[in-house]
């Protein structure tokens, strides 16, 4: 948890905020950033959450609606690219129409198989718990044990069988050079070598010695209204393609890679297993073949895909697909060095992007890509349902 101090606690809430914020755990601060041009007299507001504990009387709601139609839950049409002047405004995280599938475990490196790396440190029992504050002040003034032990709490309390607690003070790694007066002999006890990186580690490490929780800094992804509109267009495109595939007697699965992120052109492919009578003609495989053909044909006939680079076909590109790619297609995507994959339908029994397996999360693979699951309602979604045992 982070408690905003100073002016940080003064921001009122708006469902159309003009200020976004992110927590910088390392610097122990909250960074507030304006996300629109601010006119003189404008109130700066942040978005608290959807669960307000008060009645929202934010007056900017009304004027905002004249300015921009908030993104609705249905998929916008791909040609709704008119600029409303706010495409670079930040889209509120709580309203994102998709969610990230996280597959990289944030384990501390040295915590393998639940074994916590420890080092021996000097500790001393505190006979008189009332002295604890004075002892902590002594530690602070002498700097004893710093900086080696700053990832640990200085006092450990252990319950005694006969009731009550015993408090133990952490002194230093080396034999303490100075000692607070009137204490018994110090002794050696193991302590974790590093802070707890996740909640599991807090529990595990703190059974040895109370350990500070210091999550690794996660880079925050911000989404603009323009980017969200572009993603919606990508989703709409694969839905349309899959619907057409179905009309033509194919399995209703389609994929699409836009050219450049600002545009809606690019390459799309449908599943063609039925018409080709070929079991590997999945939409992603078809699409990758198209991309590769485009890159190897002469420039005048090739798509803008040639700009993409030489060998790594989808480097820094986003792929949209109706159904979570199967393991074969996920591996092909990994080879292609794709950056992001968005899909609508999870395929829990066959998928290679988090369903049955998570190919980019496997040990030893040489590329990782981000996986995004669409969570918002989609027109025609039901019409695109396939056998859950199918490899998409
Ligand atoms: C963190 S404080 C914000 C600063 C507060 N308005 C002040 O003057 O100290 C949060 C409180 O502000 C009020 N508040 C913030 N945004 C509001 C809004 N949109 N409508 C009504 N009350 C709001 C609520 O009473 C809420 O509990």
Automatic annotation (TrEMBL):
SET domain ranges (all copies): 1-49
Q: Which GO terms describe its molecular function?
A: tRNA-specific adenosine-34 deaminase activity
In this chain, the stretch annotated as Disordered covers 64-83
Query: What SUPFAM superfamilies does the annotation carry?
Result: Cytidine deaminase-like, SET domain
Among Pfam families, the record links this protein to: dCMP_cyt_deam_1, SET
Domain (CMP/dCMP-type deaminase) spans: 229-355
Q: Does the keyword tRNA processing apply?
A: yes
- Quick check: keyword RNA-binding in the entry? no
Per the record, GO CC terms?
Answer: cytoplasm; nucleus
State any GO BP term from the record. Answer: tRNA processing
Gene3D superfamilies per the UniProt record, alphabetical: Cytidine Deaminase, domain 2, SET domain
Q: Which of UniProt's keywords are assigned here?
A: tRNA processing
Q: Where is the composition biased (Polar residues)?
A: 64-79
Q: Which family does the UniProt entry place this protein in?
A: Belongs to the cytidine and deoxycytidylate deaminase family. ADAT3 subfamily.
Q: Which PANTHER family match?
A: CYTOSINE DEAMINASE FAMILY MEMBER, INACTIVE TRNA-SPECIFIC ADENOSINE DEAMINASE-LIKE PROTEIN 3-RELATED
Its name, as the record gives it, is Cytidine deaminase-like protein
Q: What species does this protein belong to?
A: Sistotremastrum niveocremeum HHB9708
